Amino acid sequence: MRILLLNPNMTVAVTDLMADAGRAVAAAGTEIVPVTASRGVPYISTRAEAQIGGVLALEMLAEHDGQIDAAIIAAFGDPGVLGGRELFDFPVIGVSEAAMLTACMLGHRFAVVTFSTSLVGWYRDCVELNGMAGRCAGIHALDLSFADVAGDQEGNGDLLVELAGKVVRDSGADCLIFGGAPLAGLASRSRDRIPVPIIDPVAAAVKQAEALVALRPRKAVTGSFQRPGAKATRGLAGPLAARIEHLDRAVS
After folding, report:
1. Same domain, 82 and 11
2. Which pairing describes strands 2-7 and 31-36: parallel, antiparallel, or unpaired?
3. How far is CA 30 from the centre of its chain?
4. Are residues 143 and 163 in the same domain?
5. Rounded CA separation 48/139 (Å)
6. Alpha-carbon span 23 to 27, nearest angstrom
7. How do strand 136-141 and strand 110-114 relate by DSSP bridges?
């Protein structure tokens, strides 16, 4: 089984961090294929950047079509995930949706802890888009920068764990999600320091990707996630244009 781990921003070090978190839980025989965006922004932290990341995610999905069994969009907020499910035949999993669904199997209400207040609005949008607002005990953040966390996850991890413990006490959350790509792996390292289950979004996405591949779901041929009809394009990356124009079917 080959699972694409798609990072729609340009920071290779964060891709490597997430790939390590994914490989730590992957089953024997599962290959994690990490890919980093070649253009865009170093780290997605706004709604506008998420829109850009969604386009890049669709391009990378198209580039790997036919070479993978499933794909994970490895950016909290899941930019491009719905479009990916619409266009492609393989399962496309978003790390934030995977984390929230997993949390709901371990408790009634979950909280999200992240490293920057700038992410809170976008993450709240993601919770609401996934219909999880009633299960979410809040989104809580420190006021760190991406550079701070990427450069010193270990040091800032203590601050995040401290915040997580306070969130559990104050909100009554049954589960906790560490949100944000630079926090990959923090859940496993801090599991004994926080008194509720902690979900690593990448780890959750890998296990759900494996489950979906094993279930062998068919591609929808009716409804809102059937593949759209062919449409002319201009200026798009070649593989994505071919997918939208249905040229891939002509080639095959």
Report:
1. yes
2. parallel
3. 18
4. yes
5. 20
6. 8
7. parallel
Query: Is the confidence at residue 146, as pLDDT, over 80?
Result: no
Mean pLDDT, rounded, for 82-102: 97
- Distance between terminal CA atoms of the chain? 22
Classify residue 138 as left (phi > 0), alpha (psi -120 to 50) or beta: left
- Give exposure, 62-97, as e/b (b: 16+ Cβ within 10 Å): bbbbeebbbbbbbbbbbbbbbbbbebbebbbbbbbb
CATH of the domain at 176: 3.40.50.12500
The two three-digit tokens of residue 140, written as one number: 């809580």
Report, as an integer, the average pLDDT of 8-27. Answer: 95
Q: How many structural domains does the chain have?
A: 2
Same domain, 217 and 184: no
Q: Are residues 71 and 50 in the same domain?
A: yes
pTM to 2 decimals? 0.94
**Higher-pLDDT residue of 151, 95:** 95
**Domain region containing 114:** 97-200
Q: Can you tell me the mean pLDDT for 26-30?
A: 97
Domain identity same for 17 and 52? yes
Q: Are residues 12 and 73 in the same domain?
A: yes
* DSSP calls for 205-250: HHHHHHHHHHH-PPPPSSSTTSPPPP---SS--HHHHHHHHTHHHH
DSSP 138: E
With H, G, I as helix, E, B as strand and everything else as coil, classify residue 251. helix
